[in-house]
């Protein structure tokens, strides 16, 4: 019993209907699952030696956030190399990438599994995977029928990817990256706010405008900057990074503009600054709100006239640099308070972007959790890292004040804890492996030091504890720690150095 003409017609219609719509692939997968009697199916896009899920049915939601590198998944590698329908033996020894990821099925030791590679001409563009819990689920379908399904799906996938490229003004496949970002630099998320952000990135990347990227600590502002650079005409030139919050005032100007030999004590040779390093490329200034007013004035001059002066040099150098700046402060308030120059703010914020906090991104939390689970699986050499339903609910219900960075650290911690109590290479993360607290516990009392401690020692000890705690709560970010402690970041750096907390 194969496909009827009616079923094939329905599949073809589903494939072409609203091909530019967000849920087109989800509808297709649902249709195929019904027609083939699958218990689970997935449509995957191929890029840079990995498969990226576009739509799933019958699989855990976090699969959509996972990235399946061929090197770590033998079945997917076999599908990518086959060039034709792949039917895996029901008792195949090759580990299944979805083991533990089909709700209600703890193991996929014996099951039917079919893989259909998808091609555009000679180029592999994706794969369709079909799983059935009974070993003979797909025996009634001939290879010829499955090839027909693969051809229909491949055509629809190729058209959809071309539409996506045109919408984002990207190049066609085979040139540059074509579609998406490099592994490890991808912005994971299907929420409305993230879809909108990606559209805005695609628009501004093609221009040469300076961009101000706003958002809370840990939301992924650096990834936004990388995406803008990679989508711009400057992509072949360097993207240079500078964290303004980590710059002591004494060396900040030299870091930005360079210096000549003898400009100051310790300047034993000429040194290029970040602007020179980024010539013809992009300079990403993180935490720009931490720059002093004097440096803001010099930065404004570069943006206005395109020339810089090394410290100690009378000559000017011409540079061609696009500046992307990021901040977790409200720079409008900083301008009103006199801590940030209004003219620099307006120069930078021609096209402002706002990265949404994780608590406003809905189901993206679970997708990101799946992404980090797969990263941990590879890093620790595990067979599987799976989230239990309780763990998914636990993560989805938390407020994530530290945003994506906090989620990443929470997953890594949970994997380490789970491994300590697990035998074998299959790790299941439970809610108990996560210790999440929206707010740090209040300090109700301060323990007094011993009687023989003088005031200076006691003060130093207390300051060390306060700074250490603020750093822990701010994921090691000095600027955020300074705001928690309501002090100037430069003063905090000096104090931490005096107390022996930094070299």
TrEMBL record:
Name of the featured protein: Nitric oxide reductase transcriptional regulator NorR
Domain Sigma-54 factor interaction positions: 187-416
Source taxon at top rank: Bacteria
Taxonomic source organism: Superficieibacter electus
Pfam families (alphabetical): AAA_lid_14, GAF, Sigma54_activat
Claim: GTP-binding is one of the keywords in the record: no
Keyword vocabulary terms for this entry: ATP-binding, DNA-binding, Nucleotide-binding, Transcription, Transcription regulation
Record keyword GTP-binding present: no
């Amino acid at each position: 019993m194969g496909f009827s003409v009616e079923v094939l017609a329905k599949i073809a219609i589903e494939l072409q209907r609203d091909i530019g719509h967000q849920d087109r692939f989800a509808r297709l997968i649902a249709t195929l699952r019904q027609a083939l009697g699958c218990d689970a199916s997935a449509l995957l896009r191929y890029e840079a030696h990995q498969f990226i899920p576009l739509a799933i049915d019958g699989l855990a939601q976090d699969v959509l956030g996972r990235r399946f590198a061929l090197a770590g998944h033998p079945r997917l590698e076999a599908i990518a190399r086959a060039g034709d329908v792949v039917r895996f033996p029901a008792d195949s020894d090759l580990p299944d990438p979805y083991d533990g990821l089909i709700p209600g099925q703890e193991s996929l030791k014996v099951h039917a599994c079919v893989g259909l590679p998808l091609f555009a001409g000679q180029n592999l563009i994706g794969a369709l995977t079909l799983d059935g819990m009974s070993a003979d689920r797909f025996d009634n379908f001939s290879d010829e029928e499955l090839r027909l399904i693969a051809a229909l799906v491949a055509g629809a996938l190729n058209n959809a990817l071309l539409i996506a490229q045109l919408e984002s003004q990207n190049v066609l496949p085979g040139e540059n990256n074509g579609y998406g970002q490099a592994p490890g630099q991808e912005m994971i998320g299907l929420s409305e706010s993230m879809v909108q952000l990606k559209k805005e990135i695609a628009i501004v990347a093609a221009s040469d405008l300076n961009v101000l990227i706003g958002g809370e600590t840990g939301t992924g502002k650096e990834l936004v900057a990388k995406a803008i650079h990679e989508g711009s005409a400057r992509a072949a030139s360097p993207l240079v990074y500078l964290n303004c919050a980590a710059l002591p005032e004494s060396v900040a100007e030299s870091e930005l503009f360079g210096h000549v030999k003898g400009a100051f004590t310790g300047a034993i040779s000429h040194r290029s600054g970040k602007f020179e390093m980024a010539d013809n490329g992009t300079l990403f200034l993180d935490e720009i709100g931490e720059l002093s007013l004097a440096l803001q004035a010099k930065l404004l001059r570069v943006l206005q006239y395109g020339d810089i002066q090394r410290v100690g040099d009378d000559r000017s150098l011409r540079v061609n640099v696009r500046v992307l700046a990021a901040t977790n402060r409200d720079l409008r308030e900083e301008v009103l308070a006199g801590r940030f120059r209004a003219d620099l703010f307006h120069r930078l914020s021609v096209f402002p972007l706002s990265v949404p906090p994780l608590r406003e991104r809905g189901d993206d939390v679970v997708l990101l959790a799946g992404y980090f689970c797969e990263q941990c699986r590879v890093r620790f050499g595990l067979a599987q890292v799976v989230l239990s339903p309780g763990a998914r609910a636990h993560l989805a219900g938390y407020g994530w004040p530290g945003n994506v960075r906090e989620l990443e650290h929470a997953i890594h911690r949970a994997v380490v804890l789970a491994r300590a109590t697990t035998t074998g290479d299959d790790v299941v993360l439970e809610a108990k492996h996560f210790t999440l607290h929206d707010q740090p516990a209040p300090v109700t009392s301060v323990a007094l030091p011993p009687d023989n401690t003088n005031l200076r020692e006691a003060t130093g000890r207390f300051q060390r504890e306060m700074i250490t705690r603020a750093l822990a709560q701010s994921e090691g970010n000095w600027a955020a720690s300074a705001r928690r402690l309501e002090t100037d970041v430069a003063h905090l750096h000096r104090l931490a150095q005096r107390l022996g907390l930094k070299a």
